[in-house]
Design brief:
Distance between the termini: 75 Å
Oligomer: single chain
Shape: globular
Number of domains: 3
Radius of gyration: 25 Å
CATH class of the largest domain: Alpha Beta
Strand content: 15-25%
Helix content: 25-40%
Length: 446
């Protein structure tokens, strides 16, 4: 080893308090720190342990100093690799400093590595990935839903009593066409884990003798969804597509711009149009799959595997049944060792206002008068947002008028808006509120 320590410095465009949260809170660390998180909140002078999503140990040690939101010092003893676990503990020091408005300097030192050559080699580039992941998450990552919104709406329901919600979020059907959407698909992230044994074992000695959890989990997932994206567990799907939804989507064919990903027509549920696949049906996706150490593969049979998957679902689907349905399916197909659990503490519910609702007709006509073009009417967007707080808790019809488009590089460093859409957006929103004042509340069932 040329040095007994590694030293890193990055700058993150985020307040120091948010960077600190990203350093210690599981909801953050699991998204960039190889799926690991503190088992319990770190406390000065106390031992700690971090674990993988499936519960297997990652690192342990002692918290030496913790001074939020500036300093975290701890010893570091690797547990996820049997050879590195034999090495003595090293020492990790985090230092956060305010470097400007909405800018934090992050300094990381991993020292005391003289007697830990394997750990030295492993973390040398490993920290680069972790720091890059933290920076990317904080500067461009998706929000962690809307914590507190549901409770706020429930507490102040009387104060928030209204006739309608008119709001903006998400992308248009296409950059060139005004769009009105009436809800969103729900979203539930699930972890599928298979734990066969502790640690990894040399493939030269054990290959062909030890079951490989990665291969087994891969086949378990392929029993849920085909290679063409068709969901095989039919109980996860809606019973049908309402006629009003199907009629509305006839006029809403997704048409990607030249610089956007092009649609794979062979993917997804057979017999559905592209619009029905993304706006009127449920999908099962594999977001991440991990077995062994992808960042530094070794010649060993891994002891466990984990996959993070996602179900996007439409209104009328009971998301509370997803895990029991999948549990029954896996057990019936010989995968009883695969565990299923929610990847996050909560999930977003699906909502949808009937396209035949009087508010929808009123808004569509207002937009047509303002722009000269009939808007695309989406019963719901393909993504998710906490619309249930407004539609269910407050009982409001919800009208969403988006001013973005699918190719805006959302949450990426070059996220942008188009001037033409923003100008038309001002035109539409002005027209909606003008017409509401002029026309009054449309005749709806109260």
């Amino acid at each position: 080893m040329a040095s007994t320590r590694h030293v890193y410095r990055i700058y993150v465009k985020a307040p120091i308090e948010r960077v600190w949260s990203a350093l210690v809170e599981p909801d953050f660390t699991r998204r960039y720190f190889h799926g690991t998180a503190f088992d319990t909140p770190p406390v000065a002078g106390q031992p700690y342990r971090t674990s993988m999503v499936d519960g297997s140990p990652a690192v342990d040690g002692q918290i030496e100093v913790i001074e939020p939101p500036h300093t975290l010092v701890m010893t570091w003893h690797t547990l996820y690799d049997a050879a590195m676990a034999e090495e003595p503990p090293s020492r990790v020091e985090w230092s956060l400093t305010v470097a400007g408005d909405n800018l934090t300097q992050v300094d990381l030192t991993h020292g005391d590595l003289f007697r830990s050559p394997l750990t030295w080699a492993q973390v040398k580039d490993g920290w680069v990935w972790i720091l890059d992941g933290m920076k990317t998450l904080l500067e461009t990552g998706e929000e962690l839903s809307s914590p507190g919104l549901q409770a706020f709406c429930e507490q102040h329901k009387a104060w928030l009593k209204s006739d309608v919600l008119i709001a903006s979020d998400g992308p248009r059907l296409s950059a060139k066409r005004p769009t009105l959407y009436l809800g969103s698909r729900g979203c539930m992230n699930l972890n599928f884990t298979l734990e066969l044994r502790e640690g990894a074992h040399h493939s030269g000695n054990w290959g062909g003798l030890l079951a490989n959890p990665g291969i087994i989990l891969m086949h378990a997932l392929s029993s849920i969804v085909t290679r063409e994206g068709k969901v095989l567990v039919r109980e996860l799907l809606p019973q049908n597509i309402p006629a009003s939804v199907r009629n509305a989507l006839k006029d809403c064919t997704p048409t990607p711009e030249p610089d956007e990903p092009q649609i794979d027509p062979w993917w997804g549920e057979p017999g559905l149009t592209a619009a029905e696949k993304v706006y009127a049906w449920n999908t099962f996706e594999i977001l991440a799959f991990r077995t062994g150490n992808p960042d530094n593969p070794v010649n060993a049979i891994p002891g466990h595997a984990v996959a993070t998957c996602q179900i996007r679902f439409v209104a009328g689907t009971d998301a509370e049944t997803f895990i029991p349905i999948l549990r029954k399916h896996l057990d019936a197909n010989g995968y009883d060792g695969v565990k299923i659990g929610m990847a996050r503490k909560s999930f977003m519910q699906a909502t949808r206002l009937d396209p035949d609702n009087a508010w929808v007709r009123w808004a569509a006509e207002s937009i047509r008068r303002s722009t000269g073009a009939a808007p695309a009417i989406l019963p719901n967007i393909g993504g998710s947002l906490p619309n249930d707080c407004f539609a269910e808790t407050l009982g409001l019809p919800t009208l969403w008028v988006p001013h973005s488009y699918a190719g805006c590089s959302q949450h990426a460093p070059n996220e942008h808006a188009l001037g033409s859409i923003l100008r038309e957006g001002l035109q539409m929103m002005t027209g909606l509120f003008w017409d509401l004042a002029e026309d009054g509340v449309p005749a709806v069932q109260r």
